[in-house]
Amino acid sequence: MDDLLREFLTESGEHLDTVDxxxxxxxxxxxxxxxxxxxxxxxxxxxxTCGFLGLPRLEALAHAAETLMGRFRDGLPATSASxxxxxxxxDRLKAIxxxxxATGTEPAGSDDDLISALERMAEGSGAxxxxxxxxxxxxxxxxxxxxxxxxxxxxxxxxLEAAFLAAAGPxxxxxxxxxxxxxxxxxxxxxxxxxxxxxxxxxAEPARAEKAEGSENGExxxxxxxxxxxxxxxxxxxxLMTMVSELVLTRNQLLEIARRxxxxxxxxxLQRLSHVTAELQDGxxxxxxxxxxxxxxxxxxxxxxxxxxxxxxxxxxxxxxETELDRQVLEVxxxxxxxxxxxxxxxxxxxxxxxxxxxxxxxGTIRLAAYHEGGTITIEIADDGKGxxxxxxxxxxxxxxxxxQADVDRMTDAQVAKFIFDAGFSTAAAVTSVSGRGxxxxxxxxxxxxxxxxxxxxxxxGRGTTFTIKIPLTLAIVxxxxxxxxxxxxxxxxxxxxxxxxVDAGAQRVERINGAPVLRLRExxxxxxxxxxxLGQAAAGAETxxxxxxxxxxxxxxxxxxxxxxVFHTEEIVVKPMSVKLRxxxxxxxxxxxGDGAVVLIVDPNGVARQVAQGIQGSGGHAxxxxxxxxxxxxxxxxxLVFKGGQGSFKAVPLSLVTRLEEIECAKVEWLGGRAxxxxxxxxxxxxxxxxxxxxxxxxxxxLVVFSDGERAxxxxxxxxxxxxxxxxxIEIAAERSDLIGSAVLRGRATDIxxxxxxxxxxxxxxxxxxxxxxxxxxxxxxxxxxFFRDMLSPVLKAAGYRVVTAASADAALATLQADPQIEVVxxxxxxxxxxxxxxxxxxxxxxxxxxxxxxxxLTGAIGADAVERAxxxxxxxxxxxxxRSGLIAALAEINAAAVSKAA
Amino acid sequence: MQAAxxxxxxxxxxxxxxxxxxxxxxxxxxxERVHDVFVPSGVTPxxxxxxxxxxxxxxxGRVVTAMSLRRRLGLPDAEAAADGKVDPKMAIGLEQxxxxxxxxxxxxxEVLKLGADSREAVPINLDPRFRNLATCVHRLxxxxxxxxxxxxxxxxxxxxxxxx
Lengths: 904, 164
Prior knowledge:
The complex is a heterodimer. Chain A is of the alpha/beta class. Chain A has a 6-stranded mixed beta sheet with strand order 10-14-15-13-12-11. In chain A, strands 21-25-26-24-23-22 form a 6-stranded mixed beta sheet, covered by helices on one side. In chain A, helix 3 packs parallel to helix 5 (112-124), helix 4 runs antiparallel to helix 5 and helix 31 runs parallel beside helix 32. Chain B starts with a helix and ends with a helix. Chain B is an alpha+beta fold. Chain B contains 5 helices and 11 strands; from the N terminus they run H-E-E-E-E-E-H-E-E-E-E-H-E-E-H-H. Chain A binds chain B through residues 246, 249-250, 488, 535-537, 576, 579-582, 584-585, 587-588, 591-593, 597-601, and chain B through 42, 44-50, 53, 55-58, 61-63, 65, 67, 97, 99, 101, 156-158.
C-alpha cells in the first residue's frame, strides 16, 4: 500500500468519525450552519480525495451523501430519516475503507441501494426545490456570523466547492443546479474570496486545481497548522519511548554509582543529565498522550441509535473531552466505556413514560466526565435514571451463592452494588425488567483492572447511578515498592498497595487458622499470603512469618496481605514485558531494571489475588463448614480407584469394593479351557479383562484389581493402575453397556465407572447362583437417594440371594412399602436430602403393624454416637457403614436367622 | 582445525559456526544467529519458570532471558553447581522473534568455517533431546562438532518444557 493511500485511510477514518458525531449534533440543532458546513466540507474532502486516488465506489457514495447534505444546506429540513440514511452511508464508507485497508484495493460490490435511496431522499423532497432553492439560500447565508477569518493560504469553502465542481467530471450533471446561488452569496461574506467577484464554474481552472489538492488536508489546509503538526507512525513513537526508558534506567544506574563514590566531579554533569532525561521523558510521554475525547467520538452516535431503538429520549453530555491520557490506556478503556454508556442507556435510564410518571424530565441524561486527579484520570459515567435495585441484587447474590444472607445484610449499599461486576451476574435480570443485551460488566471491570484501574459505583434510588473509573495516566512507567522475599527482590506496583504493616512475634503477629495465616488489622482479619510461599521458593515458612512486613494490598473487592521479608523503597520503574517463555506465569506482570542494574520481577497483584482467593476457598471452606455441611461432604465424596483399561480410556471402581491391587508375572498366567487363571494365595483365581479391548499380556507384568468375596476371588485385568481419587461422584451418562454403570468426571477426565456385578459371573458362572439360598429368599427394600449406590448395592444383594426393590427417597420408600407386602427387610441410607432415613424409619414405626415391625438396616457414612442412639430409639436393627458390603450381608443374614428362629 | 578450514576453502560453499562446549561435547551455532558473546552476571532467577530458564539478566540495559544449554539437553548442571550457585561461565546472545535470549554454556571456542564435505547426518542412536536439537554433525580433527538448530533450541514452550 503506498503512503498516499495509507494517509488517506487514516484521515478519512478520522473525518468519518467526526462527521458521525457532527451529524447527530446537527440533527438536534438543524439551524446550526457551522455544523453543517463542517460536515459538508469533510464529506467533500473524502469525495475529492477518492476521485484523486481512483476509488470510484467510495467517490460515488460520498457524492450521493454530499448531494443530500447539499439539500440540507439549501433548506431541506434535516429529518431523522434522512440523517439515519446518511449515517448508514457513513457506515458503508467505513466498511469499504476497512476492506481497503486490509486488501489495498477497493472491494467489489454495489452501493446502488444506498445511492438511489440518497438520491430519492434528495429529490423526493427536493422536487419543489429547484424553484425554491434560490430564495432560501441567501436567508441562510446572511445571518451567518460564524464564518471565521481565513488564515493565510486557506481557501474558502466555496472556492473548494467550485474547484471540485469544475474538476469532478462524472458528477457535473448533478451539481449543475444548486450551487451558483450559495457561492455567489458566500463570496460576499468572505473578504479574501471577494476578489474574484464572479467565480463562475470553468474559470481560472489551474489555480483551482492547486487548491483542490490543498483541500485534501481538510482542516489542516492552513499553512500555519500544517507546519505545526506532522503525522508520526506509532512504531516510531514506541521506539522512542523504549529508548527513553533505557535512558532513564541508565541515568538511575549512574546516580546509584555516584551515590557510592565520593568523587564530586561527576555530580554536576550528572545532575544536568538527570534533569535533561527527566524532561525528555516528560516530552516523550506527552507524545503518547491523546485526548480522551478520541475514545468518546463514537458515543453520540451510539446513544442516538440506542435512543431510537429503545424509544427513550436520551441526552449525552460530555465534559472534559480534552483530558489527555496515554494512548495505550485509551485503547483499553475505549470498549468498556462504550459498554457502560450502552448499559446506562439500556438499563440505567427508565422509559420516557416512567420518567414522566416519576416527575422527572422526559429526556434522560447520561453524563460523561473526565478529569485529572493526582496521578490518575477519573472518568465518571452518570445517568439520572432510577438507580440500581439493591434489594434485587442482594437477593440475586444470595440465590447465586456469591454471599450468604448474613453477609449481604451486613454489606453497605456500595458493596452490594459491586456485585454487578461479578461474572455472570445478569444486570438485566437483577436490576431492570428491561431485557436486552446483557452487557458483561465483569469484562468491563477486568479490562479496567488489567491497567491498574479501579471502578466504583454510587447509586441513589430514583436519582440515578454513577460509575467512577480511576485509571493511571500511563502504563509504561509505574511507581513500585521494592521488597525482598527470600533471597531476591521483587517490585510490587504501588497502585495496589494500601499500607505496610510490620509484623513480629510480639503484638502484631501472624496467626494461623487451620494453617492459613491471617493478621489482625484494626479489629479485622486480613488473609496473608507469603510471597516466598507463593513463588514456591524455599519454604522457610514459620520463621520468616515471625518477622517481616505485610504489604496490605487490594484488588477489586479482595483485600489481602502479602508477607515479605524486607521493604526497601519505592522507585519509578519502567515496565518491560515478560519473555514469551515466561508469560504463562500468572504471578508476574513484567520485569524491570533497577537503579543498581539488577533485573527484578514485577509481581502482578491480580495474579496474587487469584492465588489468595483460591487458598481462601480451600481452607475457608473447612473453617466455615458446620456439621451439616461436613456430613454432606462426607456423604457426597466417594473414593475411587482409577485405572486405564482398553484403548487408554479411564475407568474407575469404588475402592471399597476392591480387595487388593496386584501386579503379577505374566508367565504365571495359566489357561484352562480358554479361561485365564492364576494361582493366587494357594487357590486358582480367574482373570477377567476389564474391557474387551484388553488382552492379557504374555510377558512382563500384568496389573490386576482383585475383588474377593469370602473364599472366591477374581482378578480384573487392567492396563495400568492410575490413581486413587476422592471425588464427588456425579454419574453423568448412564452407559448402555452392562459392564459400565455410567461415566463421571474425575479430576477433569471423563471416566467410566465399571459395574462389578457384570464381571463376577464372568469369573464364576455360579457366583450369583451358588450363593442363592432358595429357602431364604427374602425381599429387601433398598432406599438410597444416590442412583450410584442403588446400582452398586443391588447386584451385591442380588448376588447374596435376595430380591431387591429400590426406592430413591423416603416418600417413595413408604409408598413401595405400602404397595409391596413381600418386603421383609428395609435397607436405607440414613442421610438423604428432604427426609432422612431416620424420618423414614420413624414414619414406618408409626404406621401399620406390618411396617412398624419390619427390620431395618441403616447405612451411614459415619457411625457416630448420636446416630447409634437415634437408631436404637427407632429400633433400627443394625447400622452398617456405607461401603461395608460384607457387614451388610452379615447383618442381613443375622436378621434372616433371627426371623427363621422366630418362625420356628 | 586447519584441515577443516582448508577443506572449506576448497569447496567454496562454507558456513561459519561459533563453537561452544558443554562438558566434553562441542556444539556449533550458525554465526548469523549469534549476536553476542558475553559473561553473564547478576542473573535473577524466575520462580515457577520452566527448568531450562536460568533467569533474567541485564545485557546493556536490555532484559534478556537466560537459558541453560545443559538443562536444555537434559544434562545435569556443572559439578560445581552442587550448591546451586555456580556462576555460568559464558553466554551466547541469540535472537528470536525480536526477543533476545542468552544461551548459557560452559565455554565458547572459536569461529569455524566448515564445508559440506565434513558434514554428516545426525546419528540415529543419539539421545532424542540431542537429535531434536541438532541439524547435522561435522567431523573435525579428532573431535566432532554437533550443529545446533537455534530455532529448535529456543522453540520450547512452557508445556513442552514440563513434558521434556
